[in-house]
Amino acid sequence: MVTVWKVDTQVQRLTTQTRQRSDEKVTVWKVDTQAWDVREVECPSGATWPKRDAEGDTICVNTHYDNREAAIRQLVAQAEAGIHLSAGAVERAQRAVERAREEAANAVVAATKAHRVASALADDDAKPTKEES
User: Fold this and answer.
1) Could you tell me which residues come within 8 angstroms of residue 70 by beta carbon, excluding any fewer than 6 positions away?
2) How buried is residue 63: exposed, middle or buried, by Cβ count under 10 Å (0-12/13-18/19+)?
3) What is the gyration radius of the CA atoms in the chain, in angstroms?
4) Ranked by mean pLDDT, which of 12-16, 18-22, 55-59 comes out on top?
5) What is the pLDDT of residues 40-71, one digit of tens each?
């Protein structure tokens, strides 16, 4: 019975300590890719996703960091990724425009040939036939 009482006391002490720690706030560095900024923000001690920081944003491993340098590296990486994605989008759009120009040129050639055929058929229809003459 004494051993059980000690375990219960230790569990109660650990529970109390855990409760106190969860009420503590820690300061972390937040990466904000809308304002393109890194700033300090308070979070509950040991909080991870899906909990929220003091600004109401969800705490994520790629937005909240223990040190400023890591947050800055992430901000730069996000900006560079944006450049890479945008450059890819521009290249795809340029290729699409080039394909559309080629299709338009082919359509003009096809229309020109079609008009020549139509004109030749119209000329043939306008000529009198041997039976008519």
Assistant:
1) 29
2) buried
3) 37
4) 55-59
5) 999 988 878 889 999 999 999 999 999 999 99
Both tokens of 27, joined, read 């300061």
pLDDT reported for residue 132: 62
pTM: 0.60
Strand partners, 64: 30
What does DSSP say about strands 64-65 and 37-44: parallel, antiparallel, or unpaired?
Answer: unpaired
104 SS3 class: helix
The answer to whether residues 60 and 49 touch, using CB atoms and an 8 Å cutoff, is yes
Cβ atoms of residues 63 and 42 within 8 Å: no
Cα 62 from Cα 77, distance rounded (Å): 11
